[in-house]
Amino acid sequence: MRFIVLLLPWLELFTLIQLGINTSALTAIFYVFVTLVLGMVVLRRQGMHMFERLRDVQQGRVLGSQLLVDDMAMGLAGMLLMFPGMISDAAALVVMIGPLRRRVAALLGGSQVEPYVAQRDVHSETTIEGQYTRVNEQDRN
């Protein structure tokens, strides 16, 4: 794994050089610039979307943790697009496509996350969170 991490920047550089050889240097530079801007747009949009979700949670609406994971994945895709190179861009496309992302996560051993629902007390404005166990009078003695 360490070898792949050390080799990745060189492979990214190689793919950009090959793009420049097969097309032109200006095309390769334009490609890097476009993916940088696209990554910044995706990252900014997902950041705003996550703040909207957090605002919904504060108002007592349901927040599925799978939705939060999807938001984080899109943020990762935005960062991958900002790195120059075609390998990270291909990985970003895999992360951006939801069904493909979930299938790859399942193949890599990821688990399905249970949705989280905040419980509200109907008699007050207080949100009650946590776990509890009922204890019968007979069990306490």
Describe this structure in words.
This protein is an all-alpha fold and 141 residues long. It has one domain. Helix content is 70%, strand content 3%. It contains six helices and two strands. The chain has helices at 2-22, 25-58, 65-82, 86-96, 98-107, 137-140; strands spanning 119-120, 127-128. Strands 1-2 form a two-stranded antiparallel sheet. β1 and β2 form a beta hairpin. It is elongated, with a radius of gyration of 22 Å. The model has no long low-confidence stretch (mean pLDDT 81). This is Exlusion protein FxsA. One of its GO terms (cellular component) is membrane. The chain crosses the membrane at residues 25-43, 76-98. Keywords: Membrane, Transmembrane, Transmembrane helix.
